[in-house]
Amino acid sequence: MTDHGPTEMADVAVVGGGIAGLVVAWELARAGARVIVCEADATAGGMLRSGRIAGVEVDLGAESFATRTTGVADLVADAALPLELTAPRAGGAQLAVPAREIPASDGPAREVPASDVSAPAGAVERHPLPRRAVAGLPADPAADDVARIIGAAGVARALQERALPLPADLAAAEPSLAELARTRYGSAVAERLVDPLCRSVHSRPASALRLSAVAPNLWAEFLRRGSLTAAVDALAPAERAGAAIGGIAGGMWCLADALRTAAERAGAVVRTQTPVREIRSTGAGAVLTLDGGAIVARHVVLATGPAAAGRLLGHEVAAEPVRLVTVAVVHPGLTAHPVGSGVIVAPGVPVDAKALTHANAKWAWLDAALNPDTHILRLSARDAGTGLRTHDEVATALRALTGVPVQATDIRALVETRWDDAVPAPGDGPTPTEALTAAALARGIHLTGAIAAGTGLASVIPHARALARELIAATTPVPAPHAL
Ligand SMILES: Cc1cc2nc3c(=O)[nH]c(=O)nc-3n(C[C@H](O)[C@H](O)[C@H](O)COP(=O)(O)OP(=O)(O)OC[C@H]3O[C@@H](n4cnc5c(N)ncnc54)[C@H](O)[C@@H]3O)c2cc1C
């Protein structure tokens, strides 16, 4: 096995102690299996990570979860984790779009693509997200909250959607969501609503998505009714877009922390600062090589990021660097929460950030923990390599996105967090998931986490639990370590 260190035995060895690895470990340990988790970092949790800023422990990675699945709530309940689930405040989010003038008539015959309309350099408009829309497609194009974003000509064009015929071959040859929105509602809806929301919610441009995948019910309703507006009107939730999320009082990092404790109580071994260097498949399982030791396991679960998984599977995979800048700002102008929970930034807005979250406007527990007029804001860098490096650059972005005259000296703390191994947004080609799944399958290794389930806790947690159930069915506990 190894010439230089102890060899341990396990039913299941888990590579990666992010939330997925911890879920697998907890499930298997409580079913009586001997599980060892190897985590390269000094702490478990992966992208659920915290840091201290303005005297408060805050999320530096994921800060919420989608409630489209009950994955997080079920886990908290089933593991009896001492956590309080919480909803964001009702303020909603805003959309920043390039300021523009639209010609008076934007009918289908002489439509002006939104991107062709010149905007004064640096000019940004901010508006609340439309209350009734699905994937940015409005239920009522003439509603005030839609008209403010797409302009009068955009409204006039979008109102024609109900009268457009349904092409006979549409179901067989579904266009991209960008193309569908453009041909049905016009360019203003496609470019100023649908595309920015797709980039924010699905991390992909609308040109890389299909409505049947993003909102299958809406797609079916559209084909049935023949009008997208009528279908959205029938299905759009009454609440604002972006409201279908939840959080945890104290921060999402508490979930990983509490789950690690539960897994260890159930008997799992979680080793931090333990990078796995190699996985060698054998007839009866696999041998994991560590720095100074090895693990012999009947099953191996790989729950790392894509590049790390690729290295261990001998299959090179590109990852996506993600950079987040979290700041503590003292400014009374932010105390009225001028942008609600934050701002989604459309392409074309001349700001280095693609999204801003006003964390304490969004989460009441955080607001209660901060001194008056102190604010925590998170900016996702548009480019992981440049921009938002200095207090001046961050203050410029904050001014543009909040309208509040924040100066560099108002920024009391700045924490930059970088993840170099996030799952890239799927493009048109094969995804890393497909390649990694094939490579893992060939070697009898199980894959879970965002690399297998797609990014986001609502997908990652149910996937890891389902895999654990499969492994429980396939695993008979080996004797306790002292008996080996
Ligand atoms: C800035 C940011 C914000 C996000 N916001 C949200 C959000 O609000 N809501 C949401 O649902 N999702 C959000 N996500 C996505 C979500 O955090 C991830 O999809 C999820 O946490 C992935 O969990 P995981 O366990 O699959 O992977 P990870 O958390 O990446 O864990 C993988 C672990 O494997 C370890 N590892 C790597 N190589 C090795 C090795 N050789 N040996 C041992 N260990 C290794 C790593 O150190 C890491 O701890 C966000 C992500 C980021 C980066």
Automatic annotation (TrEMBL):
<protein>
    <submittedName>
        <fullName>Oxygen-dependent protoporphyrinogen oxidase</fullName>
        <ecNumber>1.3.3.4</ecNumber>
    </submittedName>
</protein>
<dbReference type="InterPro" id="IPR036188">
    <property type="entry name" value="FAD/NAD-bd_sf"/>
</dbReference>
<dbReference type="InterPro" id="IPR002937">
    <property type="entry name" value="Amino_oxidase"/>
</dbReference>
<dbReference type="Pfam" id="PF01593">
    <property type="entry name" value="Amino_oxidase"/>
</dbReference>
<dbReference type="GO" id="GO:0004729">
    <property type="term" value="F:oxygen-dependent protoporphyrinogen oxidase activity"/>
</dbReference>
<keyword id="KW-0560">Oxidoreductase</keyword>
<feature type="domain" description="Amine oxidase">
    <location>
        <begin position="19"/>
        <end position="458"/>
    </location>
</feature>
<dbReference type="InterPro" id="IPR050464">
    <property type="entry name" value="Zeta_carotene_desat/Oxidored"/>
</dbReference>
